[in-house]
Amino acid sequence: xxSNDNIYKYGLIKVWPSGCTFYPEYRNHAQRIRDLEVRADxxxxxxxxxxxxTWTQEMVWLLMNNLDYEKAGKILLTERSPFxxxxxxxxxxxxxxVGDTVAEVEELKSPRVVKTHLPLELxxxxxxxxxxxxRTTTYCKSLLFSQFSHIQFFLxxxxxxxxxxxxxAKDVAVSYFHHHRLWNCYVGTCEDFVDAFIEGYxxxxxxxxxxxxxxxxxxxxxVLFNTFEEMKKDLPNVVQRTAKFLNxxxxxxxxxxxxxxxxxxxxxxxxxxxxxxxxxxxxxxxxNVEERFxxxxxxxxxxxxxxxxxxxxxxxxxxxxxxxxxxxxx
Length: 330
Ligand code: A3P
Known about the structure:
Elements: E1 13-15, E2 20-22, H1 30-34, E3 43-47, H2 53-64, H3 69-72, H4 77-80, H5 101-107, E4 113-116, H6 126-129, H7 131-145, H8 149-154, E5 161-166, H9 169-182, H10 190-198, H11 207-216, E6 223-227, H12 228-233, H13 235-245, H14 252-261, H15 264-268, H16 276-279, H17 308-322
Parallel strand pairs: 3-4, 3-5, 5-6
Antiparallel strand pairs: 1-2
Helix pairs in contact: 10-17, 13-14
This protein binds adenosine-3'-5'-diphosphate.
The site of adenosine-3'-5'-diphosphate has 19 residues, from helix 2, helix 9 and helix 15.
Pfam family, one: Sulfotransfer_1
Family: Belongs to the sulfotransferase 1 family.
Keywords: Transferase
């Protein structure tokens, strides 16, 4: 993709059939990801970049692992919950190198909590073929086993689950712009970035195409659709909803402790989740030396970063994209 060389300095490709803009190294991993063996008790966290992925990963990993804060404070989140296509972002000589993250997912012990930003049509095929099992699970859940996820597991009735997280386009644009600078792979202006973002040129293509594919399947029993804004507004409610979806229960103290652990200040200072280790490996330029992965953590931060014209452009694009879809802006 010629026109976006300036958005990602290592160059990008288009992946068909959707035409999603993506990283060249993907070609070497595409088939393995598509053919990945999905496990019945997997949880897949699917997001467009900058929508609250890390936040959700830490929440879900803890819910799936009996709130094991000790282990969460010893092992990096990137190891506990691998980013399946991370290898695709590597490959260029001056870019930091990552290992084989598809193999990391393959080798991870169950229950796996997998992170991906892949659009729906690039996800492993098996995510969709085990769908009927979910209906059985849901039915059984309502009948008998709501408290006993382990019984369902032994009966082979638990299907994989997808937790999708969406975020408002203006905040994503700003956060993604800073992310590119942080990872030292973009040297352009915010204005150029916003235009390219609307045209679907950054890695992972168009935000709205990504979100709306999952919005269409939001009511399937194997999908939970959360938003960054809901998490900011009422984290305990989202944690409870997510726990229920995963068939876990929390008492008041457990809920309170988990919400404190997931607060922005706590995560910002938590070296096991804040990506400081990865960023340390990147040759940081003087432009991005002040930037951090845990940047602002706010809803509406775009107000201090975008011009009224840029905000209006994104709003107009959003209105066009969500028209007729029933999508509710938060
Ligand atoms: P900002 O750049 O707007 O600050 P992702 O994990 O999908 O890359 O998303 C990163 C965004 O989520 C960043 O947004 C980051 O600050 C924010 N974030 C991460 N953890 C958070 C938390 N506990 N509370 C609020 N925001 C959080």
